[in-house]
Amino acid sequence: MEEVYLGIDMGGTQIKMGLVNGMGELLGTEMLPAKSDLSMPVRLEELVEDINRILHDKFKLLGIGIAFPGIVDYINNRILSKYVKYTDAENTDLNSWAKKNWNVPLVLENDARAALMGEWQYGAGKGNDNLLMVTLGTGMGSAVLIEGKLLRGKNFIAGNLGGHMSIDFEGDKCNCGNIGCVETAGSTWALSHNLKKLHNYKNSSLSALTTIGYKDIFSHASKGDEIAKKLKKRSLEAWSAGIINLLHAYDPEKLIIGGGIMKSKSEIIPFIRKRVNERSWLPEDGVMITTANQTKYAGILGVCFLLKN
Q1: Do residue 304 and residue 287 come from a single domain?
Q2: Is 243 found in the same domain as 137?
Q3: Which Pfam families does this chain map to (predicted)?
């Protein structure tokens, strides 16, 4: 039987699972509905059957790594933040779940940090030990690697809250309770609110949409919609401001930008690079700016790497 690690990336919409061998190679993957309205213990029990089916008496499981979208205690494998999905997640005994069903060790890490580890070992960050990774889209996630070590901090929030860095102390209230966070200007969840704040927004083709995403913003802007152009510019400026703050704080050799929105990287990367060169304390080209390589399975590869090391 081939020895493998199982990585689980628990998104709010989908759960990605992958088997990874000792060389860091993906041997198989599966995508499942998140069912994130369920409690975490119930969803995990449902996953037992799926995991056993994937292993199928062909693989020997050495450990399980979980990437979770929230603040986690990496040392004790506890979820700390009350996430809007996966109710009661913070009360779940993940170690017991892994031991009871497969008698294997478990590693839990924040999804942004897990993705950073995947990029460091197998993607855009390979060969660089000082990295900042930012993911753009629904919100703005971040993670930091300094001298080859993940930055976590006493309360496990260090480097993780780039989207909740305040860039306008007189701005809108964020869903986190802070004022003027990056996400209040640059996130999917804030787009409808920001659209309705604009004068004559009903003249925009965006106003006919039931839900708005960044695919719509970039598409409608490219067709000349002035309101869409304003929303795009506002988001780009917010991301740039947040990223400059993170660059000043952590001074990495490389900035990796990921997220589904990077399908528009031809517009996003040059804009951010221009703002960094104009407004940061870094020397020109003081940081390399690039896109993520492991766009789909970085989190799985990252937690499996943590399991092995």
Answers
A1: no
A2: yes
A3: ROK
pLDDT tens by residue, 58-71: 999 999 999 999 99
pTM for the model: 0.94
- The domain in which residue 72 lies consists of 2-117+296-308
How many Cα atoms occupy the beta-carbon half-sphere of 245 within 13 Å? 18
Q: Do 111 and 217 lie in a common domain? A: no
Report CA Rg, the chain: 20
94 with 179: CB under 8 angstroms? no
